[in-house]
Every structure is written in C-alpha cells, then in structure tokens.
Amino acid sequence: MESSLGLLLVLISSVAIHIGQAQDQKEFISLDCGLPANELSPYKEAHTKLLFSSDENFIQSGKNGRVQANREREFLKPYRTLRYFPNGTRNCYSLTVEKGRNHLIRAFFTYANYDGFDNNPNFDLYLGPNLWETIDFQGQVKSVRAEMLHIPTSNSLQICLVKTGTTIPFISTLEIRPMGNDSYVTDSGSLNLFFRRYFTESKNYIRYANDIYDRAWLPYFQTEWTQISTTLQVNNSNSYIPPKDALSTAAIPTNSSAPLTIQWNSSYVNNQYYFYIHFAEIQELKKKDSREFNITWNGKVILSSFIPPKFRAHTVFAESPGTCDGGDCSLQLIRTNRSTLPPLLSALEVYTVIQFPQSETNEIDVIAVQNIKITYGISRISWQGDPCVPQWLMWDGLSCSTTDMSTPPRITHLNLSSSGLTGTITDGIKNLTSLETLDLSNNNLIGEVPDFLGNMKSLVFINISMNDLSGLIPQTLQRKGLKLFSQGNPGLCLSGSCLPPKPKSFPVAIIVSVLSVAISIIGILVLTLVLRKKNPSTVAAQRRPPSISSVNVTYANSPASSIQTNKRSFTYSEVISMTNNFQRVVGEGGFGIVYHGALNVYGQVAVKLLSQSSTQGYKEFKAEVDLLMRVHHTNLVSLIGYCNEGDHLALIYEFVPNGDLRQHLSGKGGRSIINWGTRLRIVVEAASGLEYLHTGCIPPMVHRDVKTTNILLDERFKARLADFGLSRSFPVGNESHVSTIIAGTSGYLDPEYYRTNRLTEKSDVYSFGIVLLEMITNQPVIDQSREKSHITEWVGFEVNSGDIRSIMDPNLQEDYDSDSAWRIFDLAMSCANASSKRRPSMSQVVVELKECLASEILRRNMMNRGRMEARSSAEVTVLVDTEMFPVAR
Ligand SMILES: *[C@@H]1O[C@H](CO)[C@@H](O)[C@H](O)[C@H]1NC(C)=O
Ligand SMILES: *[C@@H]1O[C@H](CO)[C@@H](O)[C@H](O)[C@H]1NC(C)=O
Ligand SMILES: *[C@@H]1O[C@H](CO)[C@@H](O)[C@H](O)[C@H]1NC(C)=O
Ligand SMILES: *[C@@H]1O[C@H](CO)[C@@H](O)[C@H](O)[C@H]1NC(C)=O
Ligand SMILES: *[C@@H]1O[C@H](CO)[C@@H](O)[C@H](O)[C@H]1NC(C)=O
Ligand SMILES: *[C@@H]1O[C@H](CO)[C@@H](O)[C@H](O)[C@H]1NC(C)=O
Ligand SMILES: *[C@@H]1O[C@H](CO)[C@@H](O)[C@H](O)[C@H]1NC(C)=O
Ligand SMILES: *[C@@H]1O[C@H](CO)[C@@H](O)[C@H](O)[C@H]1NC(C)=O
Ligand SMILES: *[C@@H]1O[C@H](CO)[C@@H](O)[C@H](O)[C@H]1NC(C)=O
C-alpha cells in the first residue's frame, strides 16, 4: 500500500483490458461485496469475463452499500457495491480453500463517499488472527488494494475487517486464486504485493484471462526508455507463467550504453523484498549482435552476464529476501562490455515478506465451536473469525489457553449462560477436548444430561442450573474433581427415582446459595469502596485503581465513548474508561503498573499508571511528557498522551502486542523462543532506538533503564524500546536535577554511575552490554546461587575455557556461527566495561551489530544453497550468490 515508482498501486475501470481466450476459472472465488443476492448473481464482469457473485453466503454481518451515485461510472461494476460494518469490532469472511496450496488473495476497497460522510476510513485487515494490512484512505486516495500470496494452514480462510478507530470498515471485492505451488516459494512468511508492473507504453493493464492466475499487471514506462515489441508468440511456459502480453513488449534504455534502473523507496526501512524479474528476448538478433547484462541490487552484482532467451520467458529471482539501506532500493540492468545491445526488461514483481506469527486456534476446537454456534443459532457479533486470537478479539464467553504464538490455542472455557439456548445439550461439546469449564445456566435447555460430559477428562466445572433438563444426572458426572451446579431444573434428579417431583435441594445448591450470599456481601463492600473513591482523600482509591468494575463507566469500544481524536491530555475518568476500569494488567514497569486499554483512534494502548510513591513531588511531569511525546522512532514505543489530574498521573503508550525480549529468550509467558538471527535483528533494532535517543534527539536523552524487559516486540517482531526518558528528572525530592536517586534496575546499572552519580549516555551502553549478555546466554543478570553472581563475572569465568558454547543459551541448539557469537560477546564485554571511557558509543555498537547480522544472514543463505540449486531450471534462475543482500550497513 505504499506508493512506489511514483505511481499509485490502484487503477480501475475506464481503461481497456486485454482479453485473451477464456480459461478455466472454476477454482476462483470472486466476491462482489455488498451485492444483494437477489440481484443477478453470479454475473459475468464485462471486461474480464470473471464470474462475480454476491458475498452474502460468506459472511453473516454487515450492510450493503453503494458508491455515491454520481461516481458510479468511474468504477467497474464489482467496485460499485460494498459491504460495511457498523457493528462489532471484527467482522469476518469465511472461505474454503485448499490447505497447503499457494493462493493469491486480493481485497479491494473503493470508498467513493458511499456513506456521505466524506471521511478517510482507516481500519485493519486481518488474515485469521494476524494483522495483514492497515487500510488507510488518508490523503483522499480513491481505492486501496491489499494483495498477497499465501499458503493457508487449514482449509478455511478467515479474512477479517477490524475496527481500530472511529471510522467504519468496508470492503468492495474479495478475490481468491489458487496458484501452482512450485513458484513464489519463500524461506518463511508470505508475500505481500508491493508492486507488479510490465513495461510498456500502452495504458492497458493485464489480468485474467491473459494471466491465468489473474495477477493484475499495471503498465509502467519511463521517459528515458524506448519500447520494443513483437507480434510473434513468446513461449511463457515456466513455473511463473508470466502473461504472454506482458512479454510481448519490453523496455530498453534509449541511451544504449546507460543502465536500465528501477528504484523505489519505502518508509518501512526494514522491509524484506522478494522480486521476480521476467525477461524474454523479443528481437531477432543479427549475427554480430548480442544482448548481455549484469543485474545489480543496490549496487551489488547479483547475476552477471545474463542473456535473455529468445522468445521464451525466463524469470530471475532470489531464494532469500533482500533489504535496502535506509529504505531506498535500486535494481539495475547494466550492459556488459561484450554486449552490442542495451539491456531489456519485460516485467517485474516486487513483494515484501509478511509474517503471520500467531497460529490459529486448534482446528478441531474451531470446528466444534462453530457447530455449537450453528446448533444453537448463536448470533453474537463477536463470534466471528478465530475464536481465541488475537486475545483482544476473543469470542465473548470463551477463554482459551495460549501457550505461545506458534502453538494453536485451545478452548478451555465456554460460557453460554443466559444465551437463550433451546433444544438439548449438543454433543458438539464433546469435541472441545480441552474444555475445563462449561456454563449453560439460565437457558431453556431440555432433555437429559448427556453421559459424555462426565467423560470429558479436562472438565472440572459444569453449570447447567436454571434450565428445563430432566431425568437422572449420569453417574459419570458425579466424579471427584468435577463441580456440578444443576439446581433450578425441576425435572432433574441426582439418583434413585425422580419421583415425587417435590423440589429437592441438592448439596450443591446450598453451596451456591451460600456463595451467592457471600458474593452479595462482597459486592456491597466493593460498591461502598467505589462510592467512597469519589472522595479524593480516600487513600485506598488513590493508590490503586479499583479492581472490580464499578457502575457508570463507558468503555472505549462502545459507541457512547467520546474520546476525541488527536488529543494528548486525558482525564482520569477517560483513563478508567479506556482501560475498562483497569481490567487487564499487561506489565509492571518502572514507576507503576501497565494496563491494557483501547482508544478509538489508536486501537489498543498501554496505560501506565504511575504509582503514588513515584509521583510525589513530580513537578516537571508535563514538561517532560511534552518532550517525550515529540520523540518518534521506528524502534521506540511512542507516547500518545498522558493524564495529569491531581494525584493521578498516567502515561498512554502505543500498545506493543508481542511481549518482550526477556520472554522470548526464556519462553516464559507463553512466548516462542527466538533463534540467533532473530536475536541479532532485535538487538540491532533496539540499539538503533537507543542510538536515536543519544544522537538524534535534542537535547540528547539517556534512557536510564535499558533491559531486556524494556525491549518489546510488535506484531511483526520488530523491536520497540519502551520506558525511555521517563526518569530524566524523576523524582526530584531534595536532590538536584541530574543526580537523582539512582534510577534503573539492579544488575543493569552502570557501576560508575552508581559510584559517581554522574549520568551519561555511556550508562545506557553499559546496560545494553548486559542485554547482549542475556541475549547470548539466557542467564539471569544476577543469580545469588551462582558462584559468580553477576552475569559479567559469570561469563568471564565460564568462557575462560576458550569454548564459547559454555556460555551460549542451550535453547539455540548450537545453531549459530561461533565467530559471530564471539564478536557479540566481545562487544558486550566492551559495552560493560567498568570504565565508561572504554565503552563504545551506541553508534559504534549499531555498526558492529549490523555486520554480525549481515554475516548471520549470509550463513543461513549458504545453508540453503543445496536446496536452491535443485530448483533452478532452464526457465528460471535462482540467485544463489547471496552476498548480494547485505543488510543495511
Ligand atoms: C447494529 O447496529 C444497529 C444500529 O447501528 C442496530 O440497530 C442493530 O441492532 C445492530 N445489530 C446488531 C446485530 O448488533
Ligand atoms: C502441490 O504440492 C502437492 C504436494 O505438496 C502436490 O501433490 C501437488 O501436485 C502440487 N500441485 C501443483 C499444482 O503443483
Ligand atoms: C515452450 O517451451 C517448453 C519448454 O521450454 C516446451 O515444452 C513447449 O513445447 C514450448 N511451447 C511452445 C508453444 O513452443
Ligand atoms: C549515455 O550513457 C552513458 C553511460 O551512462 C553516459 O556516459 C553518456 O553521457 C550518455 N549519453 C547521453 C547522450 O546521454
Ligand atoms: C524517495 O525517493 C525520492 C527520490 O529520490 C525522494 O524524493 C523521496 O523523498 C523519497 N521518499 C522517501 C520516503 O524516502
Ligand atoms: C558484470 O559482472 C561481472 C562479475 O561480477 C564483473 O566482473 C563485470 O565487471 C560486470 N560488468 C559490468 C559492466 O558491470
Ligand atoms: C571491457 O572489456 C575489455 C576488453 O574487451 C577489458 O579489458 C575490460 O577489463 C572490460 N571492462 C570491464 C569493466 O569488464
Ligand atoms: C458466565 O457469564 C455470566 C455472565 O455473562 C457470569 O455471571 C458467570 O459467572 C459466568 N460463568 C462462569 C463459569 O464464569
Ligand atoms: C468431532 O470431530 C470429528 C473429527 O475430528 C468429527 O468427525 C465428528 O463429527 C465431530 N463430532 C461432533 C459431534 O461434532
């Protein structure tokens, strides 16, 4: 969704389309969203001859919309109607696909003021539980397209529109095209389309049926080029099957000794690119003529002396992704000095790697809960998409076990209490084999209580009270370790004869009543506390937020909430509202507890409530916060706003969903353990964030609390440094500005700062050294049970043997290069040098780390070499010389 090559990525209607002979489109899914099913559906779209049908059978929610009447003729028919979603946070299409096969997935969004609000909608598009793209109409773009090549891991594909702000998500078309599976293979991750061009002076774009996979090829040409073309047939039968029409023209540089250059840039400097360059020689060469050129990527030769085959497609691609320094990418074709003719280029596709780290919920659980949903006709708006993940969109009434992102979550709690259920207890429940609690109370269920419930091993709690169930409660349900609540079913009995039908109170029922009395009492107490909170002198209320929902709170997700858009300062009651009354703790950082929250325009946020002890006398709060809000860097967690109301001080940050580096080293908190290459990338990014604080901010800023738990990971696993700068003048007390009480975390604390009380950037470098040691070893920073309790002493002692493996994290399973490990170790030790003068600067650290990362990428690519060679064939060239992809230097 970035503009590249100076062109918009979208283009529809009003231009002619090449039409080829009709081909089989049986396997395609082409949905014209918002088309009422009673209008002619499916219909054949006039230009492409694609059969579009209404989306009604693939989604249960949303409303039909239509672009503004006077603009209809700007768009082809499929883009004129749309489906929009005023209700619910997540609305999903559910489509059937072939597991394990590569698919082209394309969604198209044409706003055209369908709602008359003339706003710029902004919302997220999810693939199952993972973010795919943010759809943003900022800048009045006409249409937005998201497209990727993806191999589904199950036969069902969920494509969800997620509301992230105040605007309403919508969608115009959704298209799925199964592809061959011997093309577009990646190391890991899927391919998000960046652009796909063919080189021609015409204005026509190519789609189905010219392209049998219905990839859309947009025309592109530069003034310094000349077009060549042929009317002869070009053989396109390689595994990529580039459309013949795209191969029948090509660009050559007009100045025949100049290179042919394609450049683009992206603000996502860490993008990893895969490209596929399609060539065919389409001129009849004279005897003495030759066309031969080198291909370079960011100035490095990646393929030398390439000769495009005559009238036959040839595709060049790299097996592993490339990166671009500073976001500026350049692909050049440079004529060799043997060649008499300039280089030629037919078509080019560029994709970025997109990772979908969160696994979908266990497939059997998903099918089971969907069957239950159908059986009981449950139509809750949240019951769409993946049942368990992302956690903030979990279906109402469910809880799930989520060990780590790579393990499919399991459903552990199902609460359908007061849901108007009728009929019998469904056996669909049987297939939820990890279910621990089941609450079916307060419904109109009839029939007998089925046996299987007692045989579900994991079940420990069943509530079937207040229904119309009858008969005997099966023996199996009276097992130990299973709590059963069954009162309020007049026809149900525990044992023996069910007659006479005089109401009989079971022991469980008594427990329940006692419990409910107790709960009411607690409730009254809590309410009293909550009401007392209104009095600002109530200490308890000041120090800790109330932990039980009180009345009279609007939640950020509800339409009633009216928190304004780009506002920075929030009241305490808005903080309560956005955190849903401090419901979910997501961490405990320096100076306070961090809560999860939701704020219309930002989606999820993290709210740090500064504890009272740390806020005492914190006079410079506002000035400092204003300064922090101006710091923006891709590897720093941004501060969005704050609350400064009496004794209530809170900071509102962007929410970074994937835990912290510490968790991904230890595997705690259900996090996946990351490999050496990923560790290196994460520390490069964290170091860049820190370097920015030291050298890019005016005035320079010292972080003061660099540690692995402050290195957070976002949905794409990008490192984001948290909690910076906060302690700059914190808390003042009776000491002067810079020499405050020692802030920071023990173990990470610069011993020189501790001695001298003088704080410099080099104190951060020390802490960063400790982070590097942790990353290498996964050892605690301080462990009193070790003979050498501090990590620097411990590694120094252990590594005396001369064997780096003695300190390396065993979880890495020796999958790293020992030279690289030594380099990082040496770097860490120089950062953690006792004397600040002998420590490197963060800029030097960044340079060194990047070199290590580059050689790690090279190493991994070398390991892949065997595989690649097997795959190259006459029609495609796989680039194996991977030195071509140094990461950003
Ligand atoms: C959707 O929202 C409309 C109002 O915007 C409301 O009338 C309707 O009942 C809602 N539907 C559901 C299923 O919540
Ligand atoms: C795709 O791969 C599967 C095996 O994974 C193979 O059976 C199938 O034939 C392949 N399909 C195509 C179109 O190559
Ligand atoms: C195209 O090339 C392939 C192999 O390179 C060959 O098998 C096929 O017959 C050719 N097709 C045409 C139409 O020439
Ligand atoms: C053609 O390109 C070459 C190499 O880039 C350059 O030296 C030369 O000046 C160019 N000629 C013209 C006429 O632009
Ligand atoms: C991309 O490159 C062009 C030309 O070099 C430049 O004008 C533009 O500012 C760059 N954009 C970004 C985002 O770097
Ligand atoms: C083409 O690549 C080869 C091998 O890297 C190199 O020796 C040669 O100088 C290159 N030629 C040009 C014109 O860049
Ligand atoms: C170009 O060719 C000449 C000989 O024909 C050779 O001496 C020279 O090294 C070549 N230059 C490059 C850059 O390859
Ligand atoms: C089920 O949800 C209801 C409210 O919707 C709640 O009162 C009840 O405690 C929940 N049951 C369990 C077992 O959590
Ligand atoms: C339980 O799952 C199996 C397949 O895993 C399926 O065959 C069966 O029909 C399911 N049972 C119910 C009651 O849904």
Automatic annotation (TrEMBL):
Q: Give the E.C. number(s).
A: 2.7.11.1
**Pfam families, per database record:** LRR_8, Malectin_like, PK_Tyr_Ser-Thr
**Mind telling me which residue stretches traverse the membrane in this protein?**
506-531
Q: Does the keyword Repeat apply?
A: yes
Offer a single GO CC term for the protein: membrane
- Please tell me where ATP binds in this chain: K608
Q: What is its main location?
A: membrane
Q: Which SMART domains does the protein's record reference? A: S_TKc (SM00220)
Q: Its membrane topology, per UniProt?
A: Single-pass membrane protein
Q: Does the keyword Ion transport apply?
A: no
Keywords for this protein:
ATP-binding, Kinase, Leucine-rich repeat, Membrane, Nucleotide-binding, Phosphoprotein, Receptor, Repeat, Serine/threonine-protein kinase, Signal, Transferase, Transmembrane, Transmembrane helix
Reactions that this protein is recorded to catalyse: L-threonyl-[protein] + ATP = O-phospho-L-threonyl-[protein] + ADP + H(+); L-seryl-[protein] + ATP = O-phospho-L-seryl-[protein] + ADP + H(+)
Q: State its location(s).
A: Membrane
Recorded GO molecular functions are: ATP binding; protein serine/threonine kinase activity
The Protein kinase domain extends over 580-853
This chain belongs to the protein called: non-specific serine/threonine protein kinase
Q: Which organism is it from?
A: Raphanus sativus
Q: Which gene encodes it?
A: LOC108848989
